[in-house]
Fold each of these.
Amino acid sequence: MKNRLKVLRAERDWTQADLAERLDVSRQTINAIEKGKFDPSLPLAFKAARLFELAIEDIFQDEETT
Amino acid sequence: MKNRLKVLRAERDWTQADLAERLDVSRQTINAIEKGKFDPSLPLAFKAARLFELAIEDIFQDEETT
DNA sequence: ACAAAAAGTAAAACGAACTTTACATATAGT
DNA sequence: ACTATATGTAAAGTTCGTTTTACTTTTTGT
């Protein structure tokens, strides 16, 4: 699962810690998601979508063919 | 987290087992998600969106105010 | 009413999502 | 070069998503 969090942060000049705070998760969680270590839960994806005022699909991209 | 899985199944005349098979999860997982026992993972939400050719937001609805 | 299929439920087990604490490395400003 | 801020990483622990097995209840068809 790819995501555009780093770019969306950059556009707003937010640090990982800033984003973490706004999403109510730990900084390590943001880091891990950005680095692709794991996928966010669906509720967290919704929260990010609300924060950035984007569709989930515009932030997170599935990379499945099947 | 609410979802429209039951309706989407009904429109296609699929049982929970049918949907489970198409999404590659167990029937109990579908049942639990439909009954609101837990939220699907983001990858599973994407899979459902692809299957139904809908946006994730058109299948699953967050019910958060904060 | 009966049988078959579908839906609901529950417990045990496992991996994934997330936390806290802690430290290491990188980047930027003076 | 020094300091502060930002990012990366790791271990241990908790909760959540999912599976398997198995049983009960509801719905549907004849």
Amino acid sequence: MAAQRGEGETTTTPAEPADRERARAIPEAAVARLAVYLRVLSGMADQGVTAVSSEELSQAAGVNAAKLRKDLSYIGSYGTRGVGYDVEVLVSHIERILGLTRNHSVAVVGIGNLGHALANYGGFPGRGFPVTALFDVDADLIGIPVGGIPVNHIDEITAICLEREVSIGVIATPPPAAQSVCDRLVSAGVQCILNFAPVVLQVPDNVEVRKVDLAVEMQILSFHVARRADEAASVSVGNNGLGVDGMVIRP
Amino acid sequence: MAAQRGEGETTTTPAEPADRERARAIPEAAVARLAVYLRVLSGMADQGVTAVSSEELSQAAGVNAAKLRKDLSYIGSYGTRGVGYDVEVLVSHIERILGLTRNHSVAVVGIGNLGHALANYGGFPGRGFPVTALFDVDADLIGIPVGGIPVNHIDEITAICLEREVSIGVIATPPPAAQSVCDRLVSAGVQCILNFAPVVLQVPDNVEVRKVDLAVEMQILSFHVARRADEAASVSVGNNGLGVDGMVIRP
DNA sequence: CCGACTTTGTGCATGCGTTCACAAGCGGTA
DNA sequence: TACCGCTTGTGAACGCATGCACAAAGTCGG
Ligand SMILES: NC(=O)c1ccc[n+]([C@@H]2O[C@H](COP(=O)([O-])OP(=O)(O)OC[C@H]3O[C@@H](n4cnc5c(N)ncnc54)[C@H](O)[C@@H]3O)[C@@H](O)[C@H]2O)c1
Ligand SMILES: NC(=O)c1ccc[n+]([C@@H]2O[C@H](COP(=O)([O-])OP(=O)(O)OC[C@H]3O[C@@H](n4cnc5c(N)ncnc54)[C@H](O)[C@@H]3O)[C@@H](O)[C@H]2O)c1
């Protein structure tokens, strides 16, 4: 029904887009990198580093220095030419842009293998994402605390999500249950969903979904292995127009 | 030192790139989607569906139909105009391109919360990614089977990875250990790494790294919440040039 | 106070990825 | 066989992202 990712209004309005909209138009790819810069900068701050140049930071973050500066320029001009950036200042501005000035309460649904790992993980609360609710259908799990939070029955999801102001829902159920869980989260007012189930979720336009699909990640790695193996083969054996598996490369 | 992602040879060779190289130049984004199509198609095949049109498949995969057809065109012309695609045929060709005609043995390093979940997960072997080795430093874990595989000490990593022909290494250790584990995997000949530790890994050019960073995913979601909240605020309150948190939108 | 040096911020070109739109091709039908 | 309707495959245009290269803007030493 609705696209997973908002498709943005095509030029139906001949009028200019408002400046404030353009100011907010930070490329999605840049947002992801800003989160990485933030982590690196936090680490530096913890080690007592107070200033950093774009060159140093870009090395630590594994990106091109020019790209880093462009990314930072989307959020403003907080560097000092000839010197670099103040670590604390940069941290606070990135946090502001990413909306980390307030906490985002997280609910995990499906307390199996993965749900347990997520609930027990200590890394989220410190980064502004306290896990405040756990849900499952398994009667044996209800009431048991995992990572300090008792598991509730999925039927209580609406009431509890509203009460605890959950803003991010994490789906860690088996694939067949994922869409139904997603629908319940959405009716409970949750507008952000992180989905671990290998399923394409259908959601309304106002809900943001991100997926983590480990099988897909592995298949991408597999593709690169195959490509490399194929290249090696065709180099050593000479280009006969056939790759491994009889794949026709030059028909 | 080396970039996380190969930067591709710049035009040092004035000669044309060989056709076979171009044939292999499937955009990274398309590869990721091909993996999704494969999953959807496999599900359809299981339900006895034998033919599918680009429109149907694109709906099920949550993408634009034109994009889907272009993605499929990278791997060849296996559709029938006026009819659609044969599900089995498409499955086998995508599998071939993704290098899934042979199994890729997986090693998991760091059998803590996350490592246990991964080792116990039944979804990988069926997709061609059997987990064949587990490693940790914790003496209490060594020898204990998890998901049917006994945990080995990290010091045995080289010998065991070579013996079991591990092609994908999964890092699920605490962040400080990640780089050292990565180096060990690389010296054991592993060329593909999936990294869960929130750390930027340094690897040689011939090694492919993909990272899964849940905190980053949540921060991206947080960004979108903040953007939406800000838009709503500036609409209801009128645009005064200030967003939430006193963020200056139009300086 | 000045000049040399350092590093930011960004205009611009280039390349990649997405989307549109339509000709080409195939099966079915008369 | 000839026509018709449907769906694929792709050329072309567009928009987004990347990386270069440099002017602007600051620091520091003398
Ligand atoms: N474990 C992994 O490493 C891993 C890796 C990749 C993908 N995944 C995916 O993550 C998801 C969870 O994996 P897992 O290994 O934790 O599975 P699991 O079977 O261990 O746990 C699933 C949990 O969800 C609960 N559940 C089932 N239906 C539910 C519903 N309608 N509402 C609420 N809870 C419900 C079950 O009771 C169970 O506790 C699956 O979709 C799986 O494909 C897991
Ligand atoms: N658990 C989660 O849900 C989650 C979420 C996001 C990120 N992560 C990341 O994933 C990684 C693992 O998380 P976790 O919760 O499983 O941690 P954990 O502490 O439960 O497990 C880490 C395991 O790694 C082992 N280990 C430590 N040093 C090692 C070494 N040098 N070689 C081999 N093994 C070693 C430890 O003995 C332990 O068993 C961390 O980097 C964490 O930041 C975890």
